[in-house]
Amino acid sequence: MSGNPIKPSTWAAGVVALAAAGFIGHMLPSTGTAPEQPAASAQPAKQAKSESPTPKAVAPVQETAAPARKTEATSASYTPPAESDIPKGPFGDMVRLGEAIFHDTQHNAKGFVGNDLQCANCHIDRGRQPNSAPLGAAYLLYPAYRSKNGHVNTFQERLQGCFRFSMNGKAPPFNDKVLVALETYAYFLARGGPTGVAVEGHGYPKLKAPGQPADYDRGAKVYAQHCALCHGAGGEGQKSADGQTVFPPLWGPRSFNWGAGMGSINNAAGFIKANMPLGLGGTLSDQDAWDVATYMDSQERPQDPRFVDSVTETRKRFHDEPTSKYGLIVNGVLLGEKSPPSGTINTMD
Ligand code: HEC
Ligand code: HEC
Questions:
Q1: What contacts 204, CB < 8 A, 6 or more positions away?
Q2: Domain spanning 83-190: which CATH class is it, in words?
Q3: Is residue 4 within 6 Å of ligand 1 at its C-beta?
Q4: What is the pLDDT of residue 344?
Protein backbone atom coordinates (compact mmCIF):
# COMPACT_ATOMS: atom_id res chain seq x y z
CA MET A 1 0.00 0.00 0.00
CA SER A 2 1.44 3.34 -0.85
CA GLY A 3 1.00 6.34 1.36
CA ASN A 4 -1.46 9.13 0.98
CA PRO A 5 -0.12 11.49 -1.67
CA ILE A 6 -1.83 14.44 -0.02
CA LYS A 7 -1.01 14.27 3.64
CA PRO A 8 -3.36 16.16 5.93
CA SER A 9 -0.34 17.86 7.47
CA THR A 10 0.66 19.11 4.01
CA TRP A 11 -2.71 20.70 3.41
CA ALA A 12 -2.72 22.13 6.87
CA ALA A 13 0.64 23.71 6.13
CA GLY A 14 -0.63 24.88 2.77
CA VAL A 15 -3.71 26.40 4.28
CA VAL A 16 -1.64 28.17 6.89
CA ALA A 17 0.72 29.42 4.21
CA LEU A 18 -2.19 30.64 2.13
CA ALA A 19 -3.79 32.25 5.13
CA ALA A 20 -0.48 33.93 5.85
CA ALA A 21 -0.43 35.17 2.28
CA GLY A 22 -3.72 36.84 3.09
CA PHE A 23 -5.70 34.58 0.80
CA ILE A 24 -5.70 37.50 -1.52
CA GLY A 25 -8.52 37.48 -3.98
CA HIS A 26 -6.70 38.18 -7.16
CA MET A 27 -3.77 35.87 -6.67
CA LEU A 28 -3.60 33.37 -9.47
CA PRO A 29 0.00 32.31 -9.28
CA SER A 30 -0.02 29.19 -11.42
CA THR A 31 -1.29 30.67 -14.65
CA GLY A 32 -1.59 34.39 -14.26
CA THR A 33 -4.63 34.59 -16.52
CA ALA A 34 -7.33 37.16 -15.99
CA PRO A 35 -9.57 36.16 -13.11
CA GLU A 36 -12.87 36.91 -14.78
CA GLN A 37 -12.29 34.88 -17.91
CA PRO A 38 -14.43 31.74 -17.77
CA ALA A 39 -12.18 28.86 -18.65
CA ALA A 40 -14.54 27.02 -20.93
CA SER A 41 -15.36 29.91 -23.15
CA ALA A 42 -13.85 32.46 -25.42
CA GLN A 43 -16.92 34.66 -25.00
CA PRO A 44 -16.84 37.63 -22.70
CA ALA A 45 -18.11 36.89 -19.21
CA LYS A 46 -21.02 39.27 -19.69
CA GLN A 47 -22.65 36.91 -22.14
CA ALA A 48 -22.33 34.06 -19.73
CA LYS A 49 -25.97 33.22 -19.41
CA SER A 50 -27.41 29.81 -19.43
CA GLU A 51 -30.15 29.11 -21.93
CA SER A 52 -32.54 26.34 -21.47
CA PRO A 53 -34.41 24.35 -24.08
CA THR A 54 -36.91 23.34 -21.42
CA PRO A 55 -39.06 25.66 -19.36
CA LYS A 56 -38.19 23.59 -16.27
CA ALA A 57 -34.61 24.80 -16.11
CA VAL A 58 -34.75 27.68 -13.68
CA ALA A 59 -32.70 28.63 -10.66
CA PRO A 60 -32.05 25.82 -8.18
CA VAL A 61 -34.89 25.36 -5.75
CA GLN A 62 -34.77 23.62 -2.47
CA GLU A 63 -37.27 20.87 -3.22
CA THR A 64 -34.89 19.20 -5.61
CA ALA A 65 -32.11 19.34 -3.05
CA ALA A 66 -33.85 17.02 -0.63
CA PRO A 67 -32.93 13.35 -0.88
CA ALA A 68 -35.47 10.58 -0.45
CA ARG A 69 -35.01 10.38 3.29
CA LYS A 70 -37.60 12.80 4.49
CA THR A 71 -39.14 10.47 7.02
CA GLU A 72 -35.99 9.82 9.00
CA ALA A 73 -35.01 11.62 12.17
CA THR A 74 -31.82 13.66 11.96
CA SER A 75 -31.33 14.39 15.64
CA ALA A 76 -29.19 11.43 16.64
CA SER A 77 -25.45 11.76 16.66
CA TYR A 78 -22.56 9.40 17.30
CA THR A 79 -18.81 9.53 17.03
CA PRO A 80 -17.05 7.06 14.76
CA PRO A 81 -14.48 4.90 16.56
CA ALA A 82 -10.89 6.17 16.56
CA GLU A 83 -8.32 4.81 14.16
CA SER A 84 -6.55 3.23 17.16
CA ASP A 85 -9.69 1.15 17.74
CA ILE A 86 -9.12 -0.81 14.53
CA PRO A 87 -8.59 -4.34 15.85
CA LYS A 88 -5.72 -6.67 14.98
CA GLY A 89 -6.42 -9.67 12.75
CA PRO A 90 -8.11 -10.24 9.40
CA PHE A 91 -11.09 -7.94 10.09
CA GLY A 92 -8.83 -5.08 11.13
CA ASP A 93 -6.62 -5.69 8.09
CA MET A 94 -9.66 -5.32 5.85
CA VAL A 95 -10.67 -2.08 7.63
CA ARG A 96 -7.17 -0.73 7.03
CA LEU A 97 -7.25 -1.75 3.38
CA GLY A 98 -10.59 0.03 2.98
CA GLU A 99 -9.19 3.15 4.56
CA ALA A 100 -6.16 3.00 2.27
CA ILE A 101 -8.40 2.65 -0.79
CA PHE A 102 -10.55 5.52 0.39
CA HIS A 103 -7.73 8.02 0.75
CA ASP A 104 -5.53 6.78 -2.09
CA THR A 105 -7.97 5.32 -4.56
CA GLN A 106 -5.57 5.98 -7.44
CA HIS A 107 -3.00 3.47 -6.24
CA ASN A 108 -5.08 1.07 -4.18
CA ALA A 109 -8.04 0.52 -6.51
CA LYS A 110 -6.12 0.45 -9.77
CA GLY A 111 -8.13 -0.53 -12.79
CA PHE A 112 -11.30 1.05 -11.45
CA VAL A 113 -10.37 4.75 -11.48
CA GLY A 114 -10.53 6.94 -14.58
CA ASN A 115 -9.60 10.37 -13.24
CA ASP A 116 -7.29 12.10 -10.76
CA LEU A 117 -9.61 12.01 -7.75
CA GLN A 118 -9.63 10.09 -4.48
CA CYS A 119 -12.78 9.19 -2.53
CA ALA A 120 -11.47 11.33 0.34
CA ASN A 121 -11.34 14.46 -1.85
CA CYS A 122 -15.10 14.79 -1.47
CA HIS A 123 -15.51 12.83 1.78
CA ILE A 124 -12.99 14.78 3.81
CA ASP A 125 -10.80 13.41 6.58
CA ARG A 126 -10.92 9.89 5.15
CA GLY A 127 -14.68 9.86 5.30
CA ARG A 128 -14.95 11.01 8.89
CA GLN A 129 -15.84 14.70 8.57
CA PRO A 130 -19.46 15.67 9.29
CA ASN A 131 -21.24 17.53 6.44
CA SER A 132 -18.90 15.89 3.98
CA ALA A 133 -21.06 12.79 3.45
CA PRO A 134 -19.15 10.84 6.11
CA LEU A 135 -18.86 7.16 5.33
CA GLY A 136 -20.05 5.70 8.64
CA ALA A 137 -23.20 7.82 8.62
CA ALA A 138 -23.87 6.65 5.05
CA TYR A 139 -23.46 2.99 5.98
CA LEU A 140 -26.19 3.39 8.63
CA LEU A 141 -28.70 4.28 5.86
CA TYR A 142 -28.24 1.27 3.58
CA PRO A 143 -29.86 -0.70 1.99
CA ALA A 144 -31.90 2.22 0.62
CA TYR A 145 -34.18 3.05 -2.27
CA ARG A 146 -32.48 5.40 -4.77
CA SER A 147 -34.43 7.34 -7.34
CA LYS A 148 -31.24 7.51 -9.43
CA ASN A 149 -31.71 3.86 -10.43
CA GLY A 150 -35.21 3.16 -9.17
CA HIS A 151 -34.60 0.25 -6.81
CA VAL A 152 -33.32 -0.66 -3.35
CA ASN A 153 -29.51 -0.50 -3.38
CA THR A 154 -27.19 -2.43 -1.12
CA PHE A 155 -24.21 -0.52 0.22
CA GLN A 156 -21.92 -2.27 -2.27
CA GLU A 157 -24.11 -1.19 -5.15
CA ARG A 158 -23.94 2.39 -3.82
CA LEU A 159 -20.17 2.14 -3.82
CA GLN A 160 -20.15 0.84 -7.39
CA GLY A 161 -21.90 4.05 -8.44
CA CYS A 162 -19.11 6.11 -6.90
CA PHE A 163 -16.55 4.39 -9.11
CA ARG A 164 -18.64 4.72 -12.24
CA PHE A 165 -19.49 8.40 -11.80
CA SER A 166 -17.39 10.27 -9.21
CA MET A 167 -14.22 8.38 -10.13
CA ASN A 168 -15.14 8.32 -13.84
CA GLY A 169 -14.04 4.70 -13.78
CA LYS A 170 -15.41 1.20 -13.75
CA ALA A 171 -17.49 -0.45 -11.04
CA PRO A 172 -15.63 -3.26 -9.26
CA PRO A 173 -17.72 -6.46 -9.40
CA PHE A 174 -19.77 -7.40 -6.30
CA ASN A 175 -17.57 -8.86 -3.57
CA ASP A 176 -14.43 -7.71 -5.31
CA LYS A 177 -11.85 -7.09 -2.61
CA VAL A 178 -12.02 -3.34 -3.26
CA LEU A 179 -15.74 -3.23 -2.43
CA VAL A 180 -15.41 -5.63 0.51
CA ALA A 181 -12.64 -3.47 1.96
CA LEU A 182 -14.56 -0.21 1.51
CA GLU A 183 -17.70 -1.77 2.98
CA THR A 184 -15.72 -3.10 5.95
CA TYR A 185 -14.17 0.32 6.56
CA ALA A 186 -17.61 1.96 6.41
CA TYR A 187 -19.07 -0.64 8.77
CA PHE A 188 -16.22 0.01 11.20
CA LEU A 189 -16.82 3.78 11.06
CA ALA A 190 -20.56 3.20 11.61
CA ARG A 191 -20.02 1.30 14.87
CA GLY A 192 -22.10 2.66 17.70
CA GLY A 193 -24.40 4.58 15.37
CA PRO A 194 -28.15 3.90 15.01
CA THR A 195 -29.13 2.03 11.83
CA GLY A 196 -31.78 3.57 9.62
CA VAL A 197 -31.29 6.99 11.17
CA ALA A 198 -29.86 9.99 9.33
CA VAL A 199 -27.41 11.12 12.01
CA GLU A 200 -26.27 14.70 12.43
CA GLY A 201 -23.79 15.77 9.76
CA HIS A 202 -24.72 12.94 7.37
CA GLY A 203 -24.63 13.71 3.65
CA TYR A 204 -23.93 17.25 2.51
CA PRO A 205 -25.87 20.17 3.95
CA LYS A 206 -28.98 21.19 2.04
CA LEU A 207 -28.70 24.91 1.50
CA LYS A 208 -31.81 27.05 1.34
CA ALA A 209 -32.64 28.31 -2.14
CA PRO A 210 -30.46 31.35 -2.87
CA GLY A 211 -31.80 34.86 -2.33
CA GLN A 212 -31.06 35.72 -5.94
CA PRO A 213 -31.09 33.10 -8.70
CA ALA A 214 -27.63 31.51 -8.85
CA ASP A 215 -25.47 33.28 -11.40
CA TYR A 216 -22.57 32.08 -13.55
CA ASP A 217 -20.84 35.47 -13.78
CA ARG A 218 -20.89 36.05 -10.05
CA GLY A 219 -19.73 32.45 -9.60
CA ALA A 220 -16.75 33.10 -11.88
CA LYS A 221 -15.71 35.96 -9.61
CA VAL A 222 -16.10 33.88 -6.45
CA TYR A 223 -14.05 31.18 -8.16
CA ALA A 224 -11.23 33.55 -9.10
CA GLN A 225 -11.15 34.99 -5.62
CA HIS A 226 -11.53 31.91 -3.41
CA CYS A 227 -10.76 28.78 -5.41
CA ALA A 228 -8.40 29.32 -8.34
CA LEU A 229 -5.34 29.60 -6.13
CA CYS A 230 -5.55 25.89 -5.32
CA HIS A 231 -7.71 24.39 -8.07
CA GLY A 232 -6.19 26.40 -10.95
CA ALA A 233 -7.73 29.14 -13.08
CA GLY A 234 -9.11 26.54 -15.47
CA GLY A 235 -10.34 24.12 -12.78
CA GLU A 236 -7.59 21.67 -13.71
CA GLY A 237 -6.15 21.27 -10.19
CA GLN A 238 -2.45 21.08 -9.42
CA LYS A 239 0.11 18.31 -9.31
CA SER A 240 3.37 18.13 -7.41
CA ALA A 241 6.68 17.74 -9.23
CA ASP A 242 6.45 13.94 -8.90
CA GLY A 243 3.05 13.89 -10.57
CA GLN A 244 0.85 13.41 -7.48
CA THR A 245 -2.37 15.39 -7.48
CA VAL A 246 -2.13 17.93 -4.69
CA PHE A 247 -5.26 19.94 -5.50
CA PRO A 248 -7.91 17.91 -7.32
CA PRO A 249 -9.40 19.01 -10.66
CA LEU A 250 -12.95 20.41 -10.48
CA TRP A 251 -13.74 19.97 -14.16
CA GLY A 252 -12.14 18.85 -17.43
CA PRO A 253 -11.10 15.34 -18.52
CA ARG A 254 -9.53 14.29 -15.19
CA SER A 255 -12.44 15.22 -12.90
CA PHE A 256 -15.76 13.56 -12.01
CA ASN A 257 -18.09 12.88 -14.94
CA TRP A 258 -21.53 14.27 -15.80
CA GLY A 259 -23.30 11.45 -13.99
CA ALA A 260 -21.67 12.21 -10.61
CA GLY A 261 -23.51 13.59 -7.58
CA MET A 262 -21.13 16.56 -7.46
CA GLY A 263 -22.39 17.54 -10.92
CA SER A 264 -25.70 18.47 -9.30
CA ILE A 265 -25.52 22.10 -8.28
CA ASN A 266 -27.36 21.48 -5.01
CA ASN A 267 -24.85 18.84 -3.86
CA ALA A 268 -21.93 20.99 -4.97
CA ALA A 269 -23.28 24.09 -3.19
CA GLY A 270 -23.74 22.15 0.06
CA PHE A 271 -20.30 20.55 -0.15
CA ILE A 272 -18.60 23.84 -0.99
CA LYS A 273 -20.40 25.80 1.72
CA ALA A 274 -19.40 23.30 4.41
CA ASN A 275 -15.90 22.37 3.24
CA MET A 276 -14.34 24.92 0.87
CA PRO A 277 -12.04 26.79 0.68
CA LEU A 278 -10.22 23.92 2.36
CA GLY A 279 -9.72 24.71 6.01
CA LEU A 280 -12.14 27.65 5.78
CA GLY A 281 -15.45 25.76 5.52
CA GLY A 282 -18.50 27.85 6.43
CA THR A 283 -16.90 31.16 5.47
CA LEU A 284 -18.60 31.66 2.09
CA SER A 285 -22.13 33.07 2.05
CA ASP A 286 -24.87 30.72 0.82
CA GLN A 287 -25.24 32.94 -2.24
CA ASP A 288 -21.53 32.64 -3.05
CA ALA A 289 -21.71 28.86 -2.60
CA TRP A 290 -24.68 28.60 -5.02
CA ASP A 291 -23.01 30.93 -7.52
CA VAL A 292 -19.65 29.18 -7.53
CA ALA A 293 -21.30 25.74 -7.64
CA THR A 294 -23.26 26.91 -10.69
CA TYR A 295 -20.04 28.12 -12.30
CA MET A 296 -18.21 24.86 -11.55
CA ASP A 297 -21.08 22.69 -12.78
CA SER A 298 -21.39 24.68 -16.02
CA GLN A 299 -18.01 23.48 -17.31
CA GLU A 300 -17.26 20.49 -19.50
CA ARG A 301 -16.30 17.20 -17.87
CA PRO A 302 -16.27 13.56 -18.97
CA GLN A 303 -19.42 12.27 -20.61
CA ASP A 304 -22.23 10.71 -18.58
CA PRO A 305 -21.61 6.95 -18.91
CA ARG A 306 -25.38 6.49 -19.24
CA PHE A 307 -25.34 8.52 -22.48
CA VAL A 308 -28.11 7.48 -24.87
CA ASP A 309 -28.46 8.65 -28.49
CA SER A 310 -27.92 12.38 -28.01
CA VAL A 311 -27.24 15.06 -25.45
CA THR A 312 -30.90 16.11 -25.60
CA GLU A 313 -32.15 12.58 -24.98
CA THR A 314 -29.58 12.05 -22.20
CA ARG A 315 -30.67 15.26 -20.52
CA LYS A 316 -34.31 14.20 -20.78
CA ARG A 317 -33.63 10.84 -19.16
CA PHE A 318 -31.06 11.69 -16.50
CA HIS A 319 -30.67 15.45 -16.09
CA ASP A 320 -34.09 16.95 -16.48
CA GLU A 321 -33.88 19.07 -13.37
CA PRO A 322 -32.86 22.65 -12.59
CA THR A 323 -29.78 21.50 -10.66
CA SER A 324 -28.08 20.07 -13.76
CA LYS A 325 -26.62 22.11 -16.60
CA TYR A 326 -26.00 19.04 -18.78
CA GLY A 327 -27.58 19.51 -22.20
CA LEU A 328 -28.04 23.26 -21.75
CA ILE A 329 -26.22 25.99 -23.62
CA VAL A 330 -23.86 28.02 -21.45
CA ASN A 331 -21.65 30.65 -23.10
CA GLY A 332 -22.63 29.28 -26.47
CA VAL A 333 -21.44 25.79 -25.54
CA LEU A 334 -23.91 22.91 -25.51
CA LEU A 335 -22.74 21.14 -22.37
CA GLY A 336 -22.27 17.42 -22.96
CA GLU A 337 -21.71 17.75 -26.69
CA LYS A 338 -17.92 17.98 -26.57
CA SER A 339 -17.41 16.01 -23.37
CA PRO A 340 -14.25 13.92 -23.15
CA PRO A 341 -15.08 10.20 -23.01
CA SER A 342 -16.19 8.62 -19.75
CA GLY A 343 -14.49 5.71 -18.02
CA THR A 344 -10.97 6.42 -19.21
CA ILE A 345 -9.10 3.93 -17.03
CA ASN A 346 -5.42 4.68 -16.87
CA THR A 347 -3.54 1.49 -17.53
CA MET A 348 -0.16 3.18 -17.69
CA ASP A 349 0.69 2.98 -14.00
C1 HEC B 1 -16.27 14.31 -6.86
C2 HEC B 1 -16.65 14.10 -5.51
C3 HEC B 1 -16.82 12.68 -5.02
C4 HEC B 1 -15.91 11.65 -5.08
C5 HEC B 1 -14.55 11.65 -5.70
C6 HEC B 1 -16.54 10.53 -4.41
N7 HEC B 1 -17.77 10.89 -3.96
FE8 HEC B 1 -19.01 9.78 -2.83
N9 HEC B 1 -20.44 11.20 -2.97
C10 HEC B 1 -20.28 12.43 -3.58
C11 HEC B 1 -21.55 13.12 -3.58
C12 HEC B 1 -21.81 14.49 -4.14
C13 HEC B 1 -22.47 12.28 -2.92
C14 HEC B 1 -23.95 12.54 -2.67
C15 HEC B 1 -24.65 12.09 -3.91
C16 HEC B 1 -26.13 12.18 -3.88
O17 HEC B 1 -26.72 12.34 -2.82
O18 HEC B 1 -26.66 12.08 -5.00
C19 HEC B 1 -21.73 11.08 -2.55
C20 HEC B 1 -22.27 10.01 -1.88
C21 HEC B 1 -21.56 8.92 -1.45
C22 HEC B 1 -22.09 7.90 -0.58
C23 HEC B 1 -23.47 7.90 0.03
C24 HEC B 1 -23.48 8.93 1.13
C25 HEC B 1 -24.76 9.07 1.86
O26 HEC B 1 -24.75 9.78 2.89
O27 HEC B 1 -25.76 8.52 1.41
C28 HEC B 1 -21.08 6.99 -0.37
C29 HEC B 1 -21.14 5.75 0.49
C30 HEC B 1 -19.94 7.44 -1.13
N31 HEC B 1 -20.26 8.62 -1.78
C32 HEC B 1 -18.74 6.77 -1.21
C33 HEC B 1 -17.70 7.15 -2.06
C34 HEC B 1 -16.54 6.32 -2.35
C35 HEC B 1 -16.26 4.96 -1.74
C36 HEC B 1 -15.79 7.00 -3.25
C37 HEC B 1 -14.52 6.55 -3.92
C38 HEC B 1 -14.58 5.28 -4.63
C39 HEC B 1 -16.46 8.27 -3.49
N40 HEC B 1 -17.63 8.30 -2.78
C41 HEC B 1 -15.97 9.27 -4.30
C42 HEC B 1 -19.13 12.92 -4.08
C43 HEC B 1 -17.98 12.18 -4.32
C1 HEC C 1 -6.37 25.90 0.17
C2 HEC C 1 -6.57 25.25 -1.09
C3 HEC C 1 -8.02 25.14 -1.57
C4 HEC C 1 -8.89 26.17 -1.83
C5 HEC C 1 -8.63 27.66 -1.73
C6 HEC C 1 -10.10 25.54 -2.30
N7 HEC C 1 -9.96 24.17 -2.31
FE8 HEC C 1 -11.35 22.84 -2.94
N9 HEC C 1 -10.12 21.33 -2.38
C10 HEC C 1 -8.84 21.47 -1.90
C11 HEC C 1 -8.31 20.15 -1.58
C12 HEC C 1 -6.91 19.83 -1.07
C13 HEC C 1 -9.34 19.24 -1.83
C14 HEC C 1 -9.31 17.76 -1.54
C15 HEC C 1 -9.65 17.61 -0.07
C16 HEC C 1 -9.24 16.32 0.57
O17 HEC C 1 -8.82 15.39 -0.12
O18 HEC C 1 -9.30 16.27 1.83
C19 HEC C 1 -10.45 20.01 -2.37
C20 HEC C 1 -11.64 19.45 -2.82
C21 HEC C 1 -12.61 20.13 -3.52
C22 HEC C 1 -13.73 19.52 -4.22
C23 HEC C 1 -14.02 18.04 -4.34
C24 HEC C 1 -13.02 17.36 -5.23
C25 HEC C 1 -13.12 17.71 -6.70
O26 HEC C 1 -12.06 17.83 -7.34
O27 HEC C 1 -14.22 17.85 -7.26
C28 HEC C 1 -14.47 20.55 -4.74
C29 HEC C 1 -15.75 20.41 -5.55
C30 HEC C 1 -13.83 21.78 -4.37
N31 HEC C 1 -12.70 21.49 -3.64
C32 HEC C 1 -14.30 23.04 -4.70
C33 HEC C 1 -13.71 24.22 -4.27
C34 HEC C 1 -14.27 25.53 -4.49
C35 HEC C 1 -15.54 25.81 -5.27
C36 HEC C 1 -13.44 26.43 -3.87
C37 HEC C 1 -13.63 27.90 -3.75
C38 HEC C 1 -14.82 28.34 -3.06
C39 HEC C 1 -12.33 25.67 -3.32
N40 HEC C 1 -12.54 24.34 -3.56
C41 HEC C 1 -11.25 26.24 -2.68
C42 HEC C 1 -8.15 22.66 -1.75
C43 HEC C 1 -8.70 23.90 -1.87
A1: 131, 132, 133, 267, 270, 271, 274
A2: mainly alpha
A3: no
A4: 87
